[in-house]
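Here is the promised in-class demo. Please do not try to memorize the tokens; focus on the logic of going from shape to residues.
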């Protein structure tokens, strides 16, 4: 949803930045790895230092790099099958670093209910992403559902600026991520059964 409605407004700026980076021989995989590094810093900042505001700033950098690596790949024709695989796989690491940091934060606070919802978030995020990747491996495009990676990170980022709503935000992500996973399973059943 965010990629559909927000990305078009950023496209020209991202393309200009992509051409500049390409002139310095920067590759999409470099940006992917840098984005994952900032995700790790985000998780550490939450889980160890409990600094939500700084974590939000680091998460914004990570999210921007995630947009930029895709733009660089498309704009400068630097895409490859391995690059697509690598980007998708690194996104899973990035998600785990960030939400794992949130989980570790609440473990230290002995907040069992928050730990539980963080586990639900990690489950929903993983299954949502895997279901799409598996369907596309079977030759069927799948963008069904509302709660994709961008939406999860935006909601978490807003909550990081206003930590009083963090638990509510985590429950929202957990419920909608798992609901999206179910939507994709049902969509897959419909599409793959029809093709059979």
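The designed amino acids, position by position:
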């Amino acid at each position: 949803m965010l990629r559909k409605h927000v990305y078009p407004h950023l496209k020209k700026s991202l393309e200009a930045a992509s051409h500049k980076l390409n002139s310095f021989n920067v590759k999409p995989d470099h940006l992917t790895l840098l984005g994952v590094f900032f995700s790790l810093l985000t998780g550490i900042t939450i889980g160890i230092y409990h600094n939500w505001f700084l974590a939000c700033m680091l998460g914004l950098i990570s999210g921007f790099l995630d947009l930029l690596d895709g733009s660089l790949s498309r704009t400068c024709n630097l895409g490859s099958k391995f690059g697509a695989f690598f980007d998708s796989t690194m996104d899973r690491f990035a998600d785990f670093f960030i939400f794992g940091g949130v989980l570790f934060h609440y473990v230290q606070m002995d907040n069992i209910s928050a730990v539980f919802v963080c586990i639900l978030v990690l489950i929903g995020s993983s299954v949502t992403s895997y279901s799409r990747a598996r369907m596309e491996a079977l030759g069927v495009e799948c963008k069904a559902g509302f709660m994709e990676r961008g939406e999860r990170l935006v909601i978490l980022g807003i909550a990081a600026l206003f930590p009083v709503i963090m638990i509510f935000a985590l429950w929202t992500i957990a419920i909608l991520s798992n609901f999206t996973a179910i939507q994709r399973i049902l969509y897959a059943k419909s599409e793959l059964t029809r093709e059979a």
